[in-house]
Amino acid sequence: MRIIGLSVKRIDYPMRRPFASARRASTVAQTVCVTAHLEGGVVGYGEGAPAPYVTGETVASVARDATLATDALQGLDARRIRHWGAALREALCGPTARAAVEGALLDALARTRHLSLWHWFGGAREWVETDFSLTLGPLEEVGRHAAEARAAGYRTLKIKVGGSEPEVDEARVRAVAAAAPDARLRLDANQSFTPETALRLVSRLLEAGIPVELLEQPVPKDDWEALAAVTRACPVPVIADEAVQSVAQAMCVARTGAAHGINIKLAKCGPLAALEIIAVARAAGLRLMLGCMLESLLGIGAAVHLACGTGAFDYLDLDSHALIGLEPTGRPFAQTGAVLSVDPEAPGHGWEPVATGG
User: Fold this and answer.
1) What is the per-residue pLDDT across 82-114, written as a single tens digit (0 to 9) for each?
2) Which of the residues 47, 107, 241, 242 is marked catalytic?
3) How many domains does the chain have?
4) Is 53 helix (H, G, I), strand (E, B) or coil?
5) Nearest in space to 294 (alpha carbons), one of 107, 53, 79
6) Domain containing 215: what range?
7) Confidence class of residue 228 from pLDDT cuts 50, 70 and 90?
8) CATH code for the domain in which residue 63 is found
9) Which of 17, 54, 98, 353 has the most beta carbons within 10 angstroms of its beta carbon?
10) Is 216 a catalytic residue?
11) Burial class (CB in 10 A: 0-12, 13-18, 19+), 82
12) Among the options 57, 65, 107, 188, which is catalytic?
């Protein structure tokens, strides 16, 4: 079952409404769709949605690198996953490009066996529950969006914080808590705080009775001492996101206790490394989150199959398709409120470009 080649297509999705974090503001989700071609005519699909502030990649570099990967993979046996995976790692430095190619090849391979990726990842459960992310925006707007999300069935809301004024961050969280008083709240700082600012915000919110569930990546990704300082003092779990993009960095968290858990994103490492990071985190007793960049139904579908198949995650943040405004069709996943579920009978992850349109 030889790899014939790869084809690459850039796709832009206008977002439902502008979305901002401490590191970027987006009105368009830029993605790269990779199609893997195996002998016999079998194809599979993968997606890369780069975030330059995380991996240094752009949509142009992902498209270029994924195209170049054909030279390293052509003629290899698709069934020898570790073999072509090693060849791909040697050929491509960019993790988002590598993730798109890995995803496409795994999808194609599963389709040759008429096997769902959910089965391939372990078949642990058929559904998971995601949160919904709220932009770094005006208080009234964020409160309104929080109420809409809660009414749509989301029981957990992730709030972007890390603006220029800590008082406004606190007011934004309070506005969400008022608009959705029974929701669990997660804070995502995207590297924008000092340890002191992060701890002060969490403490003030907890003192006010606001149910903060976790704090994600409070400090710059390369400042491991600051991350560990927040983790030691924070009364809620601290989750490393941008700081962990590889198995080696996951092992560093496990060894040093720099965070209580890790946010895995396929665009940061690809599905093969994601499985290894899961193993490291489980062995070390770390919590696990599965997050996303700005993927469409294709990329989110692959993540839902990973989440359901492994059953490994404590927290799910798989909502970029909703931020874009794309409606799940059942393949690669279905959605009811905040619940995302797989179709165990669909070969691969089940995504088809004509059937889904995104």
Assistant:
1) 999 999 999 987 999 999 999 999 999 999 999
2) 241
3) 2
4) helix
5) 53
6) 119-356
7) very high
8) 3.30.390.10
9) 98
10) yes
11) exposed
12) 188
